[in-house]
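Input structure tokens:
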């Protein structure tokens, strides 16, 4: 009988907006969920607050220091979800808290960590198309991380992200 390893962790999921467009990062082949596209995301460490978790992960995964402020999207208690990892017999139960942060940085300014091998920005029109089942530049619902699927399928969370964008001076979701 196969042994099932279960873990419960808290993660921050951060939609980083580069000049109003949403940054997408592709997971490296050696990582959990290889070749899947997602937002900045990572586990909470030690006694970090959820906002500190979001800020640390964003800096680590994009190389962009001093991002902020981070705005929490949706329920403050987070959203439970489950994944089956790339290791045999591994199932993870996680609690995700979603955040958004905006910067004037460009895609060229983003320095990928070893966790990712590609980067792209998507407009809201492109995210809307993916939400409806389309594929944009090789990104579709079939190859995005579970947290991106969750956000795109949740009218409340996705609406919160769009409203955050609308609140930015001089920017509007495209």
């Amino acid at each position: 009988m196969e042994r099932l390893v279960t873990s419960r962790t808290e993660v921050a999921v951060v939609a980083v907006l580069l000049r109003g467009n949403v940054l997408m990062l592709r997971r490296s082949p050696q990582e959990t969920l290889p070749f899947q596209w997602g937002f900045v995301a990572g586990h909470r460490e030690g006694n970090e607050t959820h906002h500190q978790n979001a800020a640390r992960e964003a800096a680590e995964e994009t190389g962009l220091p001093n991002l902020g402020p981070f705005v929490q999207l949706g329920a403050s208690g987070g959203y439970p979800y489950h994944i089956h990892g790339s290791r045999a017999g591994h199932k993870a139960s996680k609690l995700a808290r979603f955040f958004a942060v905006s910067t004037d940085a460009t895609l060229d300014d983003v320095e990928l960590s070893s966790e990712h091998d590609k980067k792209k920005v998507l407009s809201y029109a492109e995210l809307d198309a993916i939400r409806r089942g389309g594929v944009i530049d090789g990104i579709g619902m079939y190859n995005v991380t579970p947290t991106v699927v969750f956000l795109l399928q949740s009218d409340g969370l996705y609406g919160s992200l769009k409203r955050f964008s609308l609140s930015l001076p001089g920017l509007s979701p495209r």
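The beta strands are 5-18, 21-27, 37-38, 40-43, 71-73, 79-84, 90-103, 116-122. The longest strand covers residues 5-18.
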